[in-house]
What we know:
The chain is α+β, with helices and mostly antiparallel strands. The chain has one helix at 49-70, and strands at 12-15, 19-23, 33-37, 74-78, 93-99.
Amino acid sequence: MSVFLEINNEDKIYSGVNFFLIKDRFPVSPGHVLIISNNLKKDFFELNDEERNELPLMIEAAKNLIDKEYNPDGYNIGMNCGETAGQTVFHFHCHIIPRYKGDMENPRGGVRHCITGKGNY
């Protein structure tokens, strides 16, 4: 059973055909949003074509909602696919993480820092 299937409708900030958005309960930064599949799919690679086609629209919807409330300076968009990649909830979700000037000393490399020491170039 996925914890994401237990999310109440009042916690959903936006719904599409195949996905819904919630504010992350453990946000990395103010405005952190999750895109979650309505149906239990382990990760991005289990999404069907219809779901994959809708995902960019959901990313845009999340960005628009975050922009209105938080006005960030940038974004990281990420998915962890598999335990080795850091996935802990095996139900598709995509992180939309707003970034703010000064939120870290040197953001250069962004998601490349998922493996210590490999993000610097």
